[in-house]
Structures are given as structure tokens and as C-alpha cells.
Amino acid sequence: MNKSTTYREWTGNNDPDALEVLRKPGGIIVSPTKVGYIIMTTDARGLERKFDVKERPRNKPGVVLCSSISQLSDLAKLNNEILDFYQKHWDEDILLGCILPWSKYGKSLIPDDGSKNYIMDRRETSCFVIRFGTPSEKLTQTLWCENKRLCFASSANPSGEGNRGVVSGIGSKIEAGVDLIIAADKYVASIQPSKSEET
Fold first, then answer.
1. Which residues are within 8 A (CB) of 197 and not within 5 positions of it... i.e. 6 or more apart?
2. How confident is the model at residue 86 (pLDDT cuts 50, 70, 90)?
3. With bands split at pLDDT 50, 70 and 90, how would you rate the model's confidence at 54?
4. Nearest residue to 85 (alpha-carbon basis) of 97, 101, 67
5. If residue 32 lies in a helix (H) or strand (E), which one and from where to where?
6. What is the pLDDT of residue 61?
7. For residue 172, how many other CB atoms are within 10 A of its CB?
8. Using CA atoms, how far apart are residues 92 and 12, in angstroms rounded to an integer?
């Protein structure tokens, strides 16, 4: 465990320090999801740091986290078929991410700091993800409801390596390079009860 990095055990509620990090320019945290851990941030400085700690090529965009169907509808262009597809997954609490174009309104909410270069592909589309796990969903929802702040993410493991589903598997560079880590191995295991670190 890196002594310079702040660790928190997830208690079921938002950690105020995690929110504070994500509100600050360039802040990045590690947070639990249904399938392991992610690096979360809200702006270009944070995205740059995320790419550095993951040692990930800049041409592989992060994903956009959506805490509700309403938020998704604000950010992405949806037709009835796509909306129904997302709604079905939402209602059944199934993680889903699809690559979609941004709405005009959604684009206006992206920080004007170069973030577009890190979250969009060449077609100006992004992967919009829902139902990714309660701990990270709560953070995303709070920041969205406060002032329409967007959350971007990538898996918290070195590029090319699998997400082992335990906080000890995020790697030393990520551990040392983020501002705060929320640990919830029991939560991840409860969602994936038949999985092991290897699978």
C-alpha cells in the first residue's frame, strides 16, 4: 500500500473526500464497479493523468459514465430502439456500454479544456455506460445533479492487463498516481460470486 495515497473502504455512501477530488481540476480516483475497479476523473488534466498511470495510448478513449437514463438521453443521440435497449438493461440492472454520437447539448457540457480529445474517437462518438456499479454510480449521480459535471473512466489496471477485481490488482503505478482509492473488494465479489482473480 502506498502511504502517499489515501485509501477508503466503501461504506455504502459517497465519500466526501472522493467527491472533493473529482471536483478539483485534474483529480483522479480509483473506484469500484461491478466488474472491478476504474479510474474516474472529470476533466482533461485528469484524463491526461489517467493515461499516464495506465500507460495507455491516447488514441483509446475513456468511457462516459451515466447515472440515469435521463442523463444518457441528455448526452447521447438516441432513437427509440437504442433507448429501449438501454432502458431494458437499466430496469434489469445490467451493465451496458454502447458507442454513440453525442447530442448537441451533451457536447456543450464537455469541459472546454481538451477533454474531447481524450473521450471521443475520430467520429466524435463515445462509449456511454450505465449500471456500472453502485459505488461509482453514486459519485457520478452526485456530480451530475450538482452542476451537470461529467465523469470519465477507464479500467484501473495497466493497459493490456486484465482487471482482477481486487484493489491490490490495480498495479503500483496506478496506486501511486491517483489521489484517492475507494476499496470495496467484497462489493465486487458479491456481484461476481463465481469469478476468481484469474477469470
1. 164, 165, 166, 169
2. very high
3. confident
4. 97
5. strand 29-33
6. 80
7. 10
8. 21
Q: Grid coordinates standing for 30?
A: 480509483
How many whole angstroms separate alpha carbon 79 and alpha carbon 24? 35
Pairwise CA distance, residues 14 & 197, whole Å: 26
Residue with cell 468511457: 63
Find the helix or strand (DSSP H, E) in which 21 lies: helix 16-23
Amino acid residing at 122: R
pTM of the model: 0.91
- For residue 104, give the C-alpha cell: 448537441
pLDDT value of position 161: 63
| Contact of 174 with 54, CB cutoff 8 Å | yes
Could you tell me the three cell numbers for 194?
Answer: 463465481
Sole residue written with cell 456511454: 128
According to DSSP, residue 136 is labeled H
What gap in Å lies between CA 54 and CA 161, rounded to an integer? Answer: 10
Identify the pLDDT of residue 3. 47
- Neighbouring C-alpha atoms within 13 Å toward the C-beta of 70: 4
